[in-house]
């Protein structure tokens, strides 16, 4: 593995206290290590009620907890209020990936993140969501800025975690740690659509809990 060379990161306003919304261990691994390398005091906020089913949710959360514990990072485990997520997704069931259902989902997760940040003295919040090439980074950043903008003194850090080799390091860390590798974005509708695409290609449907980085199958695609 090549030596990981990271730039020195400076959060908005020069603040050193950051609340990191994490979606999963593969996407947050590079973000976490990059902030550690820059001596940023950060806390992980795990709020992802979109992830379905609950077994998949626990797989992703437990991997994130494992990696946070390894680095001694505080991990805030927020509620898995999936009923509220489904209520907000009503009527958007057939929207395409990266469409308005995803905007709703990012809004919901960032609203809760921003509330926690404001109530607990974090001047900056950010997210690992944008590091995946499967996501629309500007869509994510718009949602993050909108959520943070509701609170005085809170800024959303829209750093491009993909640049400067970030995407490559994300894969390196995932392989090194043998993270669980999710095969769809997370919600029941992305699972449905991914399986439909696989069926049309004559491929096997997704089996939860079977793919881990370090295996030949898991190395084919980056995290979603």
Brief characterization of the structure:
The chain is α/β, with parallel strands linked by helices. It is 43% helix and 9% strand.
How would you characterize the overall build of this protein?
Disulfide bonds join 185-187. Keywords: 4Fe-4S, Disulfide bond, Iron, Iron-sulfur, Metal-binding, Oxidoreductase, Queuosine biosynthesis, Redox-active center, tRNA processing. Catalyzes the conversion of epoxyqueuosine (oQ) to queuosine (Q), which is a hypermodified base found in the wobble positions of tRNA(Asp), tRNA(Asn), tRNA(His) and tRNA(Tyr). It catalyses: epoxyqueuosine(34) in tRNA + AH2 = queuosine(34) in tRNA + A + H2O. By secondary structure, the protein is α/β, with parallel strands linked by helices. It has a single domain (15-200), classed as HUPs (Rossmann fold), CATH 3.40.50.620. 43% of the residues lie in helices and 9% in strands. It has helices spanning 25-37, 54-71, 82-89, 100-119, 137-148, 166-177, 188-200, and strands spanning 17-21, 41-46, 75-77, 124-127, 155-156. Strands 3-2-1-4-5 form a 5-stranded parallel β-sheet, with helices on both faces. Helix 2 (54-71) links the parallel strand 2 (41-46) and strand 3. Helix 1 (25-37) packs parallel to helix 2, helix 1 packs across helix 6 and helix 4 (100-119) packs parallel to helix 5 (137-148). The longest helix is centred in the middle third of the chain and has 20 residues, at 100-119. The model has no long low-confidence stretch (mean pLDDT 94).
């Amino acid at each position: 593995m090549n030596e990981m060379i990271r730039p020195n990161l400076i959060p908005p306003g020069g603040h050193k206290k950051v609340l990191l919304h994490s979606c999963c261990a593969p996407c947050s691994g590079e973000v976490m290590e990059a902030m550690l390398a820059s001596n940023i005091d950060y806390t992980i906020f795990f709020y992802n009620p979109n992830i379905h089913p609950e077994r998949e949710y626990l797989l992703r959360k437990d991997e994130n907890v494992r990696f946070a514990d390894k680095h001694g990072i505080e991990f805030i485990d927020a509620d898995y209020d999936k009923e509220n997520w489904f209520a907000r997704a009503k009527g958007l069931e057939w929207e395409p990936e990266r469409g308005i259902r995803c905007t709703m989902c990012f809004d919901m997760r960032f609203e809760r993140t921003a509330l926690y940040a404001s109530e607990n003295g974090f001047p900056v919040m950010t997210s690992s969501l944008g590091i995946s090439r499967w996501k629309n980074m500007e869509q994510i950043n718009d949602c993050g800025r909108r959520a943070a903008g509701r609170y005085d003194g809170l800024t959303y850090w829209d750093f491009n975690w993909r640049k400067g080799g970030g995407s490559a390091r994300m894969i390196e860390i995932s392989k090194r740690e043998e993270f669980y590798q999710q095969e769809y974005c997370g919600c029941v509708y992305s699972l449905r659509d991914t399986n439909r695409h696989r069926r049309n290609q004559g491929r096997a449907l997704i089996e939860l809990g079977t793919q881990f980085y370090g295996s030949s199958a898991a190395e084919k695609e980056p995290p979603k």
